[in-house]
Amino acid sequence: xxxxxxxxxxxxxxxxxxxxxxxxxxxxxxxxxxxxxxxxxxxxxxxxxxxxxxxxxxxxxxxxxxxxxxxxxxxxxxxxxxxxxxxxxxxxxxxxxxxxxxxxxxxxxxxxxxxxxxxxxxxxxxxxxxxxxxxxxxxxxxxxxxxxxxxxxxxxxxxxxxxxxxxxxxxxxxxxxxxxxxxxxxxxxxxxxxxxxxxxxxxxxxxxxxxxxxxxxxxxxxxxxxxxxxxxxxxxxxxxxxxxxxxxxxxxxxxxxxxxxxxxxxxxxxxxxxxxxxxxxxxxxxxxxxxxxxxxxxxxxxxxxxxxxxxxxxxxxxxxxxxxxxxxxxxxxxxxxxxxxxxxxxxxxxxxxxxxxxxxxxxxxxxxxxxxxxxxxxxxxxxxxxxxxxxxxxxxxxxxxxxxxxxxxxxxxxxxxxxxxxxxxxxxxxxxxxxxxxx
Length: 439
Hints:
Blueprint lengths: L5 H11 L8 H8 L3 H14 L2 E4 L3 E4 L13 H7 L3 E4 L11 E3 L4 H4 L8 E4 L3 H9 L3 E4 L7 H10 L3 E3 L4 H20 L3 H4 L1 E2 L6 E2 L4 H11 L3 E5 L5 E6 H6 L6 H4 L1 E2 L10 H11 L3 E5 L5 E6 H13 L7 H7 L2 E2 L8 E4 L13 H19 L4 E11 L7 E11 L3 E10 L2 E12 L4
Parallel strand pairs: 4-5, 5-6, 6-7, 9-10
Antiparallel strand pairs: 1-2, 3-7, 8-14, 10-11, 11-12, 13-14, 15-16, 16-18, 17-20, 18-19, 19-20
Protein name: CBS domain-containing protein
Pfam families: 4HBT, CBS, DRTGG
InterPro entries: CBS_dom, CBS_dom_sf, Diverse_CBS-Domain, DRTGG, HotDog_dom_sf, Ser_kin/Pase_Hpr-like_N_sf, Thioestr_dom, WH-like_DNA-bd_sf
């Protein structure tokens, strides 16, 4: 029987930690009686494997291992739409999912190590490559507007593997497919209400004709104080809370004391949007409904907060424009003086060559988020942004962002933000935000 190494012991120890736990080289070495060098190497290995992440200003923490998403939901039919393609054969295979794509700019012998079932071979006018790919179980995408012979079409129909033709060149096709894959990764990282809702089977609710005594019974059983109210068809008609029942002791039915037409969310609502709504309205739970307003379950502020914390701890696989913009914001802060800087790249400009208003908005919010993250743990949402002075900023100019916190409470904050180019004021804005780790 193989002896467990110190490295294995450390890896097992890291996996046993709760998500969000901080991991220190010194503490790990002390706890397991190993050298700090051994602990350091194991922690780095855990980071490579996806069990550990290093977060700026937080440290090294244990995270849920995030499996690298495949592109299983990208079908060959999706590829046809992405490249504006024409299906030459194998239409019955359009619903199959794409594994990965291979560019056929090599000899047949070299392709053998790359091509496999449900792959997509991207090639030009090379019939021998088309035939080989189909026989290996892969679909074919022909670039440059070329077509293929009847033999290849018949083989595609027989194997139910699409052969697609597009007028785009190989580079453009690869870029378009990569962009579609990347967009899917970003979408998959967004946590929706459906991911955290308490299903109907575990949701406590009241009927409109129930008596307030039924609310008291549920309150004692569950310790909850707020319940959705439904009709006999399970459509949400209201919500009832403790203050509603206590304020009307003489009421006979829940329908007399409930708040009608309550706020609801759908399963496809993002958790961040739901959190913002709960903060704004000051409520602790929201009914989740379908398009006909039938009750599907509820979400609570505790579940929303937990989900948002998990999102912050997970490594992000797909970068959005917001991420790319934020990454270019350089932190120049010293002591109590917050300052940031970025250079205007061609991608940040509008058609006139000036800094885009949208990019400027993103930069201001990113700067505000960084300033407030120093003062308060947790995330925030921008509530209002008002520009009251703004001058055009040219390409390649360097912008300095100076945010100043005017007011901060448990729930929100206001910041005054000034923008400078070459020492000259070029913008002033007022940013109001709400924190999403307090309800």
